[in-house]
Amino acid sequence: MAETISTAATAPPIANPGAAAPKVTVRQLHKVYGPRAAAHVALAGIDLTVRQGEFLVLLGPSGCGKTTLLRCIAGLEQPDLGEIEIDGDPVFAAKRRLYVPPEKRHLSMVFQSYALWPHMRVANNIAYPLRNRGIAASLIAERVNNVLRLVGLEALAKNYPGELSGGQQQRVALARAIVGEPGLILFDEPLSNLDARVRDHLRVQLLALQKSLAFAALYVTHDQAEAMALADRVVVMNQGNIAQIGTPTELYHRPNSRFVAAFLGNPNEIEGSVIGIEGPYHRVRTRIGDVFATGDRATLQTGTAVTILFRPEQCGLVAEERAGPNRFAARLVRSQFLGGSVEQVVEAGGYSLIVRTTSGWANEPGARLWLVIPPDHVFAFAGGAAT
Ligand SMILES: Nc1ncnc2c1ncn2[C@@H]1O[C@H](COP(=O)(O)OP(=O)(O)OP(=O)(O)O)[C@@H](O)[C@H]1O
Ligand SMILES: [Mg+2]
Questions:
Q1: Is any ligand 1 atom within 6 A of the Cβ of residue 62?
Q2: How much distance in Å is there from the Cα of 132 to the middle of ligand 1?
Q3: Which of 37, 152, 174, 281 is the most core-located residue (most Cβ within 10 A)?
Q4: How far apart are CA 352 and CA 334, in angstroms?
């Protein structure tokens, strides 16, 4: 793609976003769809804060309530219970029957489907949110030109959306979202209709734009790599609840539940039972041998049935037997070259386990190897294997 989004700042970045008053506060938000007999709880009591200038990503499986939460904040959906504040001002309060309509919430939205007016030229699509606001035509033109430059679409101002690629159309939608200089932009999977290269490119540029313009972004995705790449903090949702909130590294290295661990990184799973605590680790008896794992001291005691999880990229394979914790006999089933990495499937204790390494592997299927899993990268959670 030839166009690039300019990162020239039009507003100073906020030095310490965490210190500012919250941009959005959500308290005990409930949303139920359908008649009482067939009620479906889409949001089951969400508490959430979006900080000023923060990039907050909502991540979770299909149907977990991400779009519903975004639409409630936008005012497109009325929750059943709870409160929402934007810049400290209530925009929804169930108890007081307070509901502020979307156009008065001073935010904008970017959708997966771009939602551009097909009969309007690019410049007019972008100008649309500024119309009927009593802004002089010359000022509108100046602002539109400004954002066209920011998203690198000056040359296409007079085109119609149908004449643009998907990536270009999404840039128009982005330009339209920022033209009114909102302090908050809500994104619902804006990049998921684009092919992988365009998506990666636009992702980097969206982040640069968000940081330089310093708006708060609440961004929905079910793509964990996208969440990791964009977020200051990630909110992992599951069935209308928040499973965990944290920075990408916190969630990746310290998942608080099996759901979060399993959602971030497609880990290997092995069932076992805690047989003791040794130093900082739980010793878990499994069919591949005794595995040292990290787990919650308060809940995982000797005798607890657990599942241990470890990610393909956080274990390795070696040919020689050596002493040390978490080394298990394994047999290579197959190797697959993936370009930047090699994915190897090994069999150990009756389990089929995936190991991903960055360098090639010369062994033939059937080779006897040793699977090495650093104990800090093995998580133990109560309960048996996923059903
Ligand atoms: N208008 C509606 N009427 C009835 N049920 C709805 C409605 N909108 C959403 N739901 C249900 O509420 C739940 C949450 O839906 P939501 O669209 O928020 O999920 P999501 O996390 O955005 O999923 P996806 O990743 O597939 O977009 C789903 O089970 C969905 O079927
Ligand atoms: Mg959705």
A1: yes
A2: 33
A3: 174
A4: 11
Chain centroid to Cα 83, Å, comes to 24
Between strands 98-99 and 108-111, the pairing is: unpaired
Write down all domains in the chain, each with its CATH number in brackets. Answer: 17-107+182-253 (3.40.50.300), 267-382 (2.40.50.140)
The pair of structure tokens assigned to 245 is 């909130």
Quick one: which of 315, 319, 323 has its CA closest to 361? 319
Tokens, residue 183: 């302090």
Here the tokens at position 291 are 């595995």
CA-nearest residue, atom 20 of ligand 1: 63
Tokens of 49: 């804060």
Q: What are phi and psi of 238, to 5 degrees?
A: -150, 120
Beta bridge partners of 352: 347
Report pLDDT digits (tens) over 86-110: 999 999 999 999 999 998 999 999 9
| Ligand closest to CA 65 | 1
Locate the ligand 1 atom nearest the alpha carbon of residue 68 and give its number: 18
Rounded CA separation 310/261 (Å) = 9
Rounded to 10°, the helix 166-178/137-150 angle is: 130
- Entry pTM: 0.88
Rounded Cα distance, 145 and 147, in Å: 6
